[in-house]
Each structure stands twice: as structure tokens, then as C-alpha cells.
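2024-03-11 09:14:02 INFO receiving multi-entity request
2024-03-11 09:14:02 INFO entity count = two
2024-03-11 09:14:03 INFO echoing inputs for audit
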Amino acid sequence: MTWRPYCSIWLVVVLAGALGAGLASAQSPEGTLTVAVATFGNERWLPHLYPGAEDVVLKPMLENLLNRDPKTGALSPMLAERWEVLEGGRAWRFYLRKGVQFHDGHGEMTAEDVKFTLATIAKEGSANSLGPEFRLIKSMDIEDPYTITIHFEKPFVAFGNKVTQGLFASVAFIHSKKYIETVGEEAAERHPVATGPWKFVEHVRGDRIVYEAVENHWRAAPHFKRLVFLKVPEPATRMAMLRAGSVDVIEIGGEYVEELKKVGVRTLLMPNVSWVYVILGGQWPGKPTYDPNVPWALPDAERARKVRLALNLAVDKQAIVQQVLGGLGSVVGAWLTYPTDPWATEALLQPYPYDPAKAKALLAEAGYPKGFEITMNLTAWPGRGYLPDVGEAVATYWEKVGIKVKRRPVDRAVFSADFRARSYAGVTLAYAAPVVGPELWEPLIRAGHTKASVHLFAEHPQLDAFIDRLAIEPDQAERVRIMRDEMVPWLHAYVPGVAIGAAHAIMGVGPRVGEWPLIPGHMGFHNWEYVTHRR
Amino acid sequence: MIMYLIGRVLQTLLSMLVVISIVFVLTRLSGNPVHLLLDVNATQRDFDLLTRHLGLDKPLPVQYGIYVKNIVQGDFGKSVLSRRPVTEHILERLPATVELGVVAMLLSVLIGVPIGVYSAVRRGGVLDSAARVFAVLGQSLPPFWLGLMLILVFGVILGVLPAGGRGGLQHLLLPAFTLGYFTSAAIMRLTRSSMLEVLGTDYIKFARLKGLHEQIVLWKHGLKNALLPVITFAVLLFVQFLGGAVVTETVFAWPGLGRLILESITTRDYPIVQAGVLVLSALYLIGNLLVDMLYSWLNPKIRYRSTAG
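2024-03-11 09:21:47 INFO inference complete, emitting structure
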């Protein structure tokens, strides 16, 4: 019979065609991934114009020099394929990846673009949150188009964490010098270009941002063809849109987790992304606004410490984590430390206990048997809408031990003004510090160092000393030892504020969303290019 | 009439000047927007530089003078946040607001007028009672709650309409109904009372005596006269929709002018707040002026009385 060879050939052809079509569809991005978020930040696109909260909507399009390994959290290559830390941290040399193109044919990324971007971030008047730190750059040498060395006066051991994609508000994204200088800032803002796996399509201010996949991207071709961000301020509307299928991903607070479970919405967890505590304002004895009558900032250090400890013992932090944060967190006593940190020991992680009787006794010992008056500011921060509720809960616990608490709902702009002027002596505020650096002293450079411009925490020469040592210690093992054996125990004993603990974040996802690898500790959405279709 | 118009125009301009002055002072009392433009850890020098760059370091009377001078020249300035012309932001959002306002007003009229007419004709009946319940609910249900309930029912449970955002006609229905329900109740009550008044007049009785069909008596003779106050009310409503839809726009994520102004207030974007309020005030005042002119044109008695002095 002669039909068999023809059948075989035909079968092979059909199978080959099906395989080819399957491969082609697996490789080509398809569909639209729609995301509803509460805010787009300041909606600026140039490096000296965005402070950092825009991170969520900028990350699809823009890239940093480095990334973070999703499993280990260690620095990993991105636009720089390798790097060296020289002179004990006084110099960082980056070897750039060759052939990385800016969108729409605007040329290859080179060391000139890196130098331009970092200098722009550092210039005076820059709104970028990294500005003050990038002003520590002494000089930048371009050895060849793909090699740049950045020099500092003093060792900057954590500089790699400032140029990594893998942290919240890590906004040292590399821009095209040639493009911005050619078209001008205004035009570059209207149509930004970058090197990321998504390119800019449209920005309707206050409404939507649309990106399109870069199909042959050097790092990762997205699985979706379009990525659309919608600004939807109302959380109930975001949840409804997710349930109705109008959006695929929503930003949502932990206070809604039970409601989401009840309606069967899938959630993804981002664990340990911020550290919640109550700031006890006024702990700056060297500043003009210092008020020596503030009970927790008294010149008598031991009395003041008793008051701060009493304010901790009066609060049932476990209840706050369960009821206010929806169980998305863990109570921790070690300041700005997460359970997975290498300097976290079992002993250090133990929280201050909930002991209202002891709290009252300590207040009496400190000279306040009938309590005193406190003002609690209730302020929400982007991505941390639960903070006024945390503040309210803490205030309620304080009232049970005889402290009179005046609540003061304050929006962020007003608080920022007070904060800059340090006019909040005697005022408390619930705050959640996002992970802006993997080691606890990194956020404290700006938030707890006397020489820093503004403070959220407390000023103390011992804190300054720890930060100064850690900032120049190039050996990571030694830094871990200093944190574990010296700094964290000191903070625990000093009791700078009311420690609540580590908070997680969640997002709601729809049925179209498949796998989504997230970097541990990164608050906010990221890694959009790796989101797969759910089959 | 000409003198009357000139007088009204001058009054309108004076009112707008008062409005922009009040808004100017109130926005500046709310604080310096630079606190929100910069990261909280920015240096004092960064803060001072940006304040100077935005012209916010000048004395308030100087800022006010510059502002009024620019307004007169048609320049609303640049957004503190985006540094783009304010006009651009307003023109970007105005179509969405007008779209929502027009559809909301149409729904208000299409729902309110027929129900008002039948309620008047069937006074005391079941339909009248139902209409009055409809009116009470419309004027007491908070738009925020109503909007969320509509989203839940039609967007989530039934899945027949989008839950939010701007798009085609189907995106308009829920927010327009939310916005329009309150006013349809008011229109219904106004139509009902106006209709009752008209139906008691001699010319309606005469029309019936002539043997005209009841539908012609109602819709051609009765409603035509009963609609005068309703039309003027509807014009005012439309102008109110343009600026007063901020709750509806927020619930439905509708990118309108109300939401732009609200967001600009929270970010202390003074130029947009000032321009937005100015535009809405102007629309409201001009709308009032047009309503007065329209009413006197539609109602010959008023023209006759004005002419007769």
C-alpha cells in the first residue's frame, strides 16, 4: 500500500504546524492586564521630579542598574551585568550590559546615561528621595561606554541598595541623556522612553497609564500585550471592579482581607514589607523645638524611658495586628527587624508584653500616677491606609491606663510641614516604614541620624554612632554582628517608640492572573513582566 | 432689557472676582504644596529652591496681583504638580464631566417628567403614592451608598454593566443614574406640582370641553405650560452637575472635573483649584443669567410686566 508514507508525512506536517503555532502563541504577548490602584503618586516621569511613591507605576517601564534575587534577596545584575565594590566602599564600578536599547529607537544605553541620571537625581531642588544620598557622590568616571566608576568621600557600603529594582521607592531608574536633552524635559515628560519590558503608550493624568509590551526585550518579554493602570481612589469600587472582571489586579489594604475571602477573591501576599510603630515626637534635646516637659522626652533619661516603656506595655499589639491589619503581620520587639533577617534572634524578636497593670505602675514611678495628655495624629500614607486605625487603636489602649488622648486627623501635607519644622513635640503618630534598604540602619540614616535633615524617630548620639559605623563597614557579616549583638539590643532597651511589628501587604487578583514571582520585602507591585496567564 | 443684561453681567463679573479671591486665600491657608512635591526627607535647601521656583516665596498680595493679572489675560498658570498649563488639565477633564452631566440631566428629565405628569393626573392613586416614595428615596439616599449598591447589583451580581471607569455608553449609565436620581426626584415633584396648577386652569377645562382627547390635553396643552419652571430648573441642575459630581466621580472612578479639583485640593495644587473653581463659578453664574433670560423669553407675562414697568 502506498498511502502510508503520505499519511506519515501529512501527520508530521500537521504536528509541526501545531507545535509551531503553540510556540508562537506562547512567545507572543496577548491580552491586557488591568490594574486598579489608589494613586499614581505625583505622576511625573523624569528622575528629579518623582519622589518615590510613583515606583509602582514607573517600574514596568524603567530599570535600575541592579536587581534583587527573589529567593535570597541578594543584589543581582540588571542593566549592570556585574559590579565591584572598591576601596572599602568608597568606589563602586558598574559594567553595563551591552546592546540594551531605549524604546522607540532612541539608542543604546551607555555609561553617559547612567552618569546623567545620577547627576540629575542629585541636583539641588530634586524631588527624588535619593537626592540627598546621591549628593554624597564625589565624582563619576566613565572608563568606556560600558564602564562607570562612582566615587564617594566616605565608604558607602549600601550604595548597591540605592540602585536596585528590588526595593520600594528605589527610583534611580536610568534615563536616556540624549533623548531628554534633544526633545527637552516637557516633551520627555509627555512621552517618556526607557529600557524596560514595557513601553509608554498613554498617560491621562489622574485616570490611566497605558503600557505596551516590548516583545524582544533583553531581559523578559511580558506575557500580556498591554498593561493598563487605572486610578480608582475608592477601595470598595476597586473590589467591585475586580469581582466584575473589569480589572485583574487591585491594590487593597489588609483591613479588607476577610471581606475578600468571603467573596472568594484570590489574594497574593507580600510579606514583611513595612514596619509599624508609633512615633513619640519630641525626642530631640538639641533642637530649638525641644520641650523638656514632654513625658517621654524628659531630660531625666530614666524617667523618660519608663514612660516610653509604659506606653508600649499598655498596648495589645497582637490584637492590633489581628483586628486592624487583618492578621497580616507579626508582632516583633526588635526595632525595624523582620523575622527572616539574619540579625534577628528569638530573644530579640520577643515583643514588649501587653501588661496594662505594669504600664500604670511605671507611669506612677515616672511621676504620672494620673497619666497625662497626648495628641495622636491620625495620618494615612500611600499604600498604608490602615495607619489612622492603628493610631486610633493605640490611643484607646492608652486611655485605659489613664492617659488622655486627643485625636487629630491630619493629612499628609500638613503633617509634612510640622515634621519638617519639628513642631510635633508632644505629638504621637502611627507610622509604617517601608523596606527601603534590607538592613535596619539604612532607613535610619534619614530617619534617626542627627545629621540627617528630617527625623521620624529619635535623635541620640548612640544611634548616630551605630549608623556611622554600619554605613562604612564593608564586611556584611560584621554589620550583621553589630546589628544583632549591639544595635538592636540597645534599641530594645532604649524603647524609642511603641513597637508594633512587621506588616504584610496583599493584592487582590482576578482569574486571568497566573504565576507572579514577587521579591520578598518589596512593598508595592513589581515584576509585571513575569505575570503569566492563568490557563 | 439691555440695561438689565448689562447690570447682570457686571454682577456676574463681580461675583467671580469675589469667588476667586476667597479661593485664593483659602488654598494658601491650607499649606505649602512643596511639602507634597518633595520626599519627606528632602533638605531645607531643596525645599527653599522649589518654593522659589514656583513663586510661592513672594508675598501673598504680590501672588494675588500676578494671579488676577494673568486671569484677565486668560492665563490660568501652570499646575504646581505637573508644570503643565492648567487649561490643559481642565480641558482634559471637562468632556468627561459634561458627558456625565448631560446624560444625568437627560435621565433626570426622562424619569422625573413622565412620573410627575402621571402622578399629577392620578393624584391620590397608587401611582401617585409610588411616585412620592420614589421622590423621598431619591432625595434621602446618599449618592455614595447608591452608587456602591448599583455597582454591586449591576456590575458584580448581574454583571451587565461595568463597575467603574470611563468608556462607552454602558460606562455612563450607572454614574449618570446615581447623579441623576436625586434630581429626578426633585424634577418629579416640581413637574407634579406645576402640572396640578396647570390642570386646574380655565384653558385646560376649555380644552376638555372642546372634546379634545385627554392625551392631547395633557401633553400638548398642559405639559407645555407646566414645563416652564422645570426647564429652568434643569438648566441650573446641569450647571450643578458639572461641579457637584465629585462623590459620584470618586465612587465610579470617573475622570471628571470634580475629582480633579478634589485631588488638587489634597495635593495643594493651587492653580488647578483656583481655575477649576473659577470655571465652575462662571458656569454657575452664567447659567443663572441664562435661566433668567430664558424664563423671561419663555413666559410672555414676565416680558409684558417688564415692558409695562
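2024-03-11 09:21:48 INFO post-check: Chain A is about 30% helix and 20% strand.
2024-03-11 09:21:48 INFO post-check: The radius of gyration of chain A is 26 Å.
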